[in-house]
């Protein structure tokens, strides 16, 4: 397929025009026009890009791309090496941040909810990217932690009483600990995100609402993978997902 065809399709599918984000969404680095193979991953790190080159990628699709607000705008050091590798091999870089978090079917939050068998009731947080709902049946906080460990292949950090019964739940992948207090107002039993801040421990203990830090990378693997698979099925191109270990 053509590069601009893919760009237009993704931009419309993820409705990028409605989001105010910390980075540009869409085509960030232009490569060759014809795309036969796309490689997806969470972050466009050098390790990821080198693996994509080995897989003969024509384009890469990530959640964490480049040109973040407040960053140095010069192409030097690490940033230069990454972009130089893309340009040397004429690989296009597509990156979608908040639009990928929020998509109702392919998004990070939708996919995490599916993996953990949550029933989504509504949305909250910045531009409504976070979700809240219910677990399919009452389970204890300890049992929920075990379920998350199996689904994400990563043991979460849990703040709360292990025997606490969990019915109502809120979640937002990545670094969404700042939504915790807003989530508490939804009368939930537990909140899941990727990272935890020092003050969130105290908020969890004093509010009685459990806080589950399940890993920034671990919680954001599923959206970009689902999007890549969707593209492959829609346009008949090859898709490979690369999952590089990240302890955070």
TrEMBL record:
One of its GO terms (cellular component) is cytoplasm. Keywords: Metal-binding. It holds the Pfam family DUF34_NIF3. The keyword Metal-binding applies. It comes from the Bacteria. InterPro entries: DUF34/NIF3, DUF34/NIF3_sf. A divalent metal cation 2 binds at residue 64. The keyword Heme does not apply. A divalent metal cation 1 binds at residues 63, 101, 216, 220. GO terms for molecular function: metal ion binding. Belongs to the GTP cyclohydrolase I type 2/NIF3 family. NCBIfam families: YbgI_SA1388 (TIGR00486). PANTHER family: GTP CYCLOHYDROLASE 1 TYPE 2 HOMOLOG, NGG1 INTERACTING FACTOR 3. Homohexamer. This is GTP cyclohydrolase 1 type 2 homolog. It comes from Nitrosomonas communis. The lineage of its organism: Bacteria, Pseudomonadati, Pseudomonadota, Betaproteobacteria, Nitrosomonadales.
């Amino acid at each position: 397929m053509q590069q601009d065809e893919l760009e237009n399709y993704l931009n419309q599918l993820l409705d990028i025009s409605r989001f105010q984000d910390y980075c540009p969404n869409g085509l960030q680095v232009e490569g060759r026009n014809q795309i036969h193979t796309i490689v997806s991953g969470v972050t466009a790190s050098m390790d990821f890009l080198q693996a994509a080159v080995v897989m003969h990628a024509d384009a890469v699709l990530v959640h964490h791309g480049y040109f973040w607000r407040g960053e140095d705008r010069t192409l030097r050091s690490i940033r230069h090496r990454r972009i130089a590798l893309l340009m040397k091999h004429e690989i296009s870089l597509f990156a979608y941040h908040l639009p990928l978090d929020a998509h109702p079917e392919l998004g990070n939050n939708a996919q995490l909810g599916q993996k953990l068998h949550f029933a989504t009731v509504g949305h909250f947080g910045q531009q409504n990217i976070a979700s809240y709902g219910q677990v399919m049946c009452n389970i204890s906080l300890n049992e929920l932690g075990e379920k998350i460990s199996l689904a994400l292949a990563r043991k979460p950090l849990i703040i709360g009483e292990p025997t606490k019964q969990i019915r109502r739940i809120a979640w937002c992948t990545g670094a969404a600990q700042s939504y915790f207090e807003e989530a508490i107002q939804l009368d939930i039993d537990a909140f899941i995100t990727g990272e935890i801040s020092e003050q969130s421990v105290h908020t969890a203990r004093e509010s009685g609402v459990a806080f589950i830090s399940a890993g920034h990378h671990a919680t954001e693997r599923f959206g970009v993978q689902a999007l890549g698979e969707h593209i492959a099925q829609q346009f008949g191109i090859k898709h490979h997902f690369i999952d590089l270990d990240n302890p955070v």
